[in-house]
Amino acid sequence: xxxxxxxxxxxxxxxxxxxxxxxxxxxxxxxxxxxxxxxxxxxxxxxxxxxxxxxxxxxxxxxxxxxxxxxxxxxxxxxxxxxxxxxxxxxxxxxxxxxxxxxxxxxxxxxxxxxxxxxxxxxxxxxxxxxxxxxxxxxxxxxxxxxxxxxxxxxxxxxxxxxxxxxxxxxxxxxxxxxxxxxxxxxxxxxxxxxxxxxxxxxxxxxxxxxxxxxxxxxxxxxxxxxxxxxxxxxxxxxxxxxxxxxxxxxxxxxxxxxxxxxxx
Length: 265
Ligand code: BTN
Fold this sequence. Notes:
Layout: H1 5-12, E1 23-29, H2 32-41, E2 49-55, E3 73-79, H3 89-105, E4 110-112, E5 116-119, E6 122-134, E7 137-147, H4 166-170, H5 176-194, H6 198-211, E8 218-223, E9 226-235, E10 241-245, E11 250-253, E12 258-261
Parallel strand pairs: 1-2
Antiparallel strand pairs: 2-3, 3-7, 4-5, 5-6, 6-7, 8-9, 8-12, 9-10, 10-11
Bound molecules: biotin.
The site of biotin has 20 residues, from helix 2, strand 3, strand 6 and strand 7.
């Protein structure tokens, strides 16, 4: 019998101030992103969380699909950040996912820029941030997180060899409720801290930078229809990747605009 991860998380005690104050649980949705956006448009409060057991049209960055059978975690969080915090959401959600996995499984996740969470070089979680603004005003953002907990990656041809799950990496069953609870608590703490100003944001950035696998590697990126190769030198305070191209120039690449490929050969 499948254990409802939301009920399990609540039973263990969910200690958050904003994230998860309202938790909505569905057996199946097209995508938790759509339901969260629908709720946000209807006025859902900051921190509303939408969780689904499975998704029929789960999506990832650049319109890719996100395979979403039962057994994993699929959630979207409605946030109402300030303009200063909005660009930090990619960073703080990556840090929150990495922390939650580390604390609940003792595995050591790494992040492939901007926010593919990897274990032993294979993708275990993905994060999608979508936002709606009106002029200078941020109406809301939706942070979507998918974590492979119990996924038979060999059964899905596009994932075989490239993705893993927490169960497989840990070599034992991992309780989804524990991961969900820890994730919401970490996301809550980081979201609140990011709202407290420049210096807390800087510390979150340092944690993200130290988890990034990409820095110091040669990479190939697709950007504005062209392919570039270079050395991933650093990230800036909004999470842009600073790439030293082979002609010696340095470009700043925004997460939403660039596809990053495995290290160039
Ligand atoms: C990526 O790596 O490209 C991002 C994947 C994000 C997947 C999650 S699963 C929960 C939420 N609902 C979706 O349809 N997508 C996100």
